Amino acid sequence: MQGYDILIDKHVGEIAFVVGAGTSLHDLDLGPIHDHVVVSVNSSFILMPWQNGDTDKRYWISNDSAVRGWSYWSNVKNSHATKIVRDSWEKYYDEIPDFLIFSPRTTGNGIIMPYEKALAYSSSVPSAIDLSIQMGCKKIFLLGVDHYFSGKRSHFWQYYPPQFQPLPIRTIVPPFFMQQHIFDENKKSYDALKRFADSKGAEVYNCNPLSKVRPFKKIEYKEAINMIEYLV
């Protein structure tokens, strides 16, 4: 198993999209993002057209080995993307020989050591942001990083008709209180990641003005698309 650090500085100066799984994703046209680096997190994979083609700018990352119990898991394994998981997956390494591995680093004190070969931990979105910064991306746009509930929904796919929703085959859906706890823990990581991004000259934009994630500048998704067209 190789470490994720082979990706460090792979995309210097490029644009990246980190795609979470919040409800704000459910009505976005993601077509324009796929000319750039895309880091998909957990169930946002089902939005990715990665059944074939070049893997160069496609990444899927997870801290949570429970995703193995979801109906989309086999598609993740077979996708044309670089897959990265936390070292807590060790007992499943035989299943995923081509995946890359990362170790977590603590961000609760608000400090990230710039040359530490590890990724921010509390959940997969902070890991994805950290990865994007370390890969050298200079404009990083967050999609579906909401950290709130829309009624009783917390994930974009809960807007789909039941027959199109991913199914928990060998796992359970975390209860709301557990998801809220993860949101709260992530806030500590975001403060540290904002400082880390600043130190690397990277700009991180949250493309949901209603998001509860506060350290990063908030813009509309349309503004992000207009920005990348100008930059390219």
> Approximately how much helix is present in the residues?
10-25%
CA gyration radius, whole angstroms = 16 Å
Give the helix tally: 4
Mean residue pLDDT: 91
- Strand elements, count: 11
Category by helix and strand content: alpha/beta
Number of domains: 1
CATH class reads: Alpha Beta
Largest sheet: 9 strands, parallel
Shape, principal axes of CA atoms: globular
Describe the structure.
This protein has 232 residues and is of the alpha/beta class. The protein has one domain (2-231): sialyltransferase cstii, chain A, CATH 3.90.1480. 22% of the residues lie in helices and 17% in strands. The strands form 2 sheets. The chain has a 9-stranded parallel beta sheet with strand order 1-6-5-4-3-2-9-10-11, with helices on both faces. The chain has a two-stranded parallel ribbon with strand order 7-8. Helix 2 runs parallel beside helix 3. The longest helix has 24 residues, at 176-199. The chain is globular and about 40 Å long. The protein starts with a strand and ends with a helix.
List the helices and strands and how they pair.
Elements: E1 2-3, E2 15-19, E3 37-41, E4 58-62, H1 73-78, E5 82-86, E6 100-102, E7 104-105, E8 119-120, H2 124-134, E9 139-143, H3 176-199, E10 203-206, E11 217-218, H4 221-231
Parallel strand pairs: 1-6, 2-3, 2-9, 3-4, 4-5, 5-6, 7-8, 9-10, 10-11
Helix pairs in contact: 2-3
Main features:
single chain; 232 residues; alpha/beta; sialyltransferase cstii, chain A; nine-stranded parallel beta sheet; two-stranded parallel sheet; 22% helix; globular
